[in-house]
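User: I want to check something. If I give you two sequences, will you return the structure for each one separately, not as a complex?

Assistant: Yes, each is folded on its own. Here is the first sequence with its structure:
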Amino acid sequence: MTTEQDLLKITKNYLKAIEEGKTGDELAVFYSPSVEQIEYPNRLIPNGAKRNLHDLKAASLRGKEVLISQNYDIQKSYVIGNTVILETIWTAIIAVPIGNIPSGGQMKAYFAQFIEFENGKIVRQRTYDCFEPF
């Protein structure tokens, strides 16, 4: 049985792997084969996005081309049943200009993330992103 502490630890390891630049199959170890990720509309992705495992792997590779580095600063975390809820400040150094942020500049957003687990793997992730102006 996976405990609340286990789920929080897996979540923190998952975010750390992203920070370390892991992509593709290195990130796939955190996901169930049936994973679904929903990114609700935001300034960067105005129509939002729905991704399966294949899409998540591809997005991680694209992200590596756009980001020099990224950091997830967890402000608050909650575990309710099989769901980890995070309030996170995300900062990234970007490799390409985005809006008025030059290459090498910093982008910042405030995330609310809901990460649902089954058998220690992420099965569903919903993300609400609020970006600072760019």
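And separately, the second sequence with its own structure:
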Amino acid sequence: MTSAPDYTYGIDSERALKYAVQHIRGDRVQIIEGIIEPVSPTWDHERAARVVRRQLEDRVDELGCVEGSGNLDLPGSSNWYVPDIAVVPEELARGGGALLPDQTFLVVEVTSESNAESDRIVKRRRYAEYRAPLYLLVDRIEGSITLFSEPGHLGYTRVDGPHPFGAVVRLPDPFNLDLDTSGLSPA
């Protein structure tokens, strides 16, 4: 009996996977723990992200940053994220490709039925491991918002929340602003 050929011999599988995902035509995708997932948010998901984004815009400009949903690479892992919002310094965004979580000021993920557990558990753990300083989880399923800060290798060491939609959540330095979450509540 012959064994199947080893097609991975000499190939850096992480690099190959991340190269492939960047060259998928027509759709945006991310890799979560080695699984390629399409990024196709619903309109209500986009509405929730917009509620947060609009409150951040002025402060983001003052900080010389850009907010958007660009790629975040997590080197040494089979992860390539497309967050709902990331705030990054303009000089890194200009002409840049994928950035690293520790190059962000803030990462925001908005849950959907299809990705809630990934946002709550997997991404939270990975963002902390890769030193994203602030991770804001807008949980549309639970109707809550939670701010994670002070990242460590075992996770975030400071948690503010979960707060029900409608509460005011304070974003610390460098933002120093109160985020009004009342616009996140459904109708």
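Because they were folded independently, the notes below concern the second chain alone. Residues 43-62 form the longest helix (20 residues). Residues 30 and 61 are 27 Å apart (CA to CA).
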